[in-house]
Amino acid sequence: MLGDQVKSGTEVIVVAALVVVVVVVVVVVVVVVVVVVVVVVLVVIVVVIVELIVVVVVVVVVVVVVVVVVVIVVVIVVLIVVVVVVVVVVVVVVVVVVVKPKQLLRYIKKKFQATIVSKVMFNAEVVIIMVVVMLTSKSVKVVVASAAAVVASAAAVVVAAAAVVLVVVVVVVVVVVVVVVEYLLLLFVVVVTAAVVVIKTKR
């Protein structure tokens, strides 16, 4: 009888010990899982915040670049307009007051022959002079020739302006692409670092 009681008591102690061990193991596992989940959530939150910051920075940089380019273009256009107005006034005054039509045509011919390289820079002046010649000359041939020169010179000016605009656009696109690539690389590094941290934490 006494032996049965001792045996029964021992079984109870063993069962209780096993229960305690199981409970401790379960608690430890739960704590580890909770810690891992919390760490993963924190890492995800940090990655999302960093991504948002990078996106905001990229947008701000792009906006700043666009604003700067627009300001530069506006300043250049204003300067060009001022220069053109000054040139027009000077040429008109010179033509009306000083130069006669025949001398003017000789001057244009000589200028074209002497400045092959700088024709594009000279086109605006040619347009102005030819317009004045058309308005002041009574000869049909002179008017027709002047009109043809005006059209050709205007086309050359348009082509030159288009080339300048194309260069500006290419520069802006290159700058924007470089900035975006830099921040994408930064984002890639951040994501890879976060992934490594998560993997090490799980291990």
Automatic annotation (TrEMBL):
Membrane spanning residue stretches: 12-45, 52-73, 79-99, 120-137, 143-176, 183-201
Lineage of origin: Eukaryota, Metazoa, Spiralia, Lophotrochozoa, Mollusca
Keywords (A to Z) from UniProt: Membrane, Transmembrane, Transmembrane helix
Keyword Membrane: yes
Protein name: ABC transmembrane type-1 domain-containing protein
Origin superkingdom: Eukaryota
